[in-house]
Amino acid sequence: MLNSKIADHHLMRKACIYIRQSTMAQVRFNQESTERQYNLADQAKSLGWTPEQVRILDGDLAQSGELMTKRDDFKTLVSDVAMGQVGAIFSLESSRLARSNKDWHRLLELCAVTKTLVFDGDGCYDPSDFNDSLVLGMKGTFAQAELHIIRARLHGAKLNKAQKGELRFPLPVGLVFDGDKIVLDPDQEVQGAVRAVFTLFEQENSAYAVVQRFHQLGLLFPRRSYGGVWDGKLIWGRLTHSRVIGVLANRHLRVWSVSIL
């Protein structure tokens, strides 16, 4: 049934294997899914495409499918389809290609015009065929709806935690959780960096001047990562004006700075 839709003009063009996962944590910890997506190249070869014709697009790993803004490989795929260079698109399921109806239907319309096939885990579809187009349209709708359901589920979990008094948000640099209490970050380098911001502001009376002094002195400012594989890790980088304002505006840090200066 798969081979019946593949014509010579499809095999004369390239087969694109589109690979995507939404977050870096999924890329790191859900490697079976990644492997299954790369194995789609073998499926394309078994259906008649040569290894030279198979192109793997994996630059969108760790990118959400909600928008195409940051998905350069998806933009490349759409462009190549529009130019009639793609005979077939392979993806594990439709949500890998797009979770936005606008992006999904735009791609399908181009596939229909250029006679490009779409393969997923359920089979082969010809977007120029009414029935196949109808099924693909429904899959795209479900993919976008699934994103809404996931968000609603996460929001509900947050509300439930808030009702129990267990909801936590990322704290400003210089503060950490110690059980149920908010305390100063025990890291001496972090304390020194925050102290330097207040000291320089007392001297310069300008947030921009504080940033300039930090850069002149070659000082870096920390931030603590929350969530994902870097959860709890300190990341040091250049101080910005917005971060100076955030430190100065924080009541807990201001009380602390007064007590130590």
Report a brief summary of the structure:
With 261 residues, this protein is α/β, with parallel strands linked by helices. 52% of the residues lie in helices and 14% in strands. The model has no long low-confidence stretch (mean pLDDT 86).
Care to describe what's here?
This protein has 261 residues and is of the alpha/beta class. The chain has 12 helices and 9 strands. A 5-stranded mixed β-sheet has the order 2-1-3-4-5, sandwiched between helices. β6 (175-178) and β7 (181-184) form a beta hairpin. It starts with 7 loop residues before the first helix and ends with a helix.
Give the SSE map.
Layout: H1 8-11, E1 14-18, H2 24-29, H3 31-38, H4 40-46, E2 54-57, H5 72-82, E3 86-90, H6 94-97, H7 101-114, E4 117-120, E5 123-125, H8 130-163, E6 175-178, E7 181-184, H9 188-204, H10 207-217, E8 221-224, E9 234-237, H11 241-249, H12 251-260
Parallel strand pairs: 1-2, 1-3, 3-4
Antiparallel strand pairs: 4-5, 6-7, 8-9
Helix pairs in contact: 7-8, 9-10
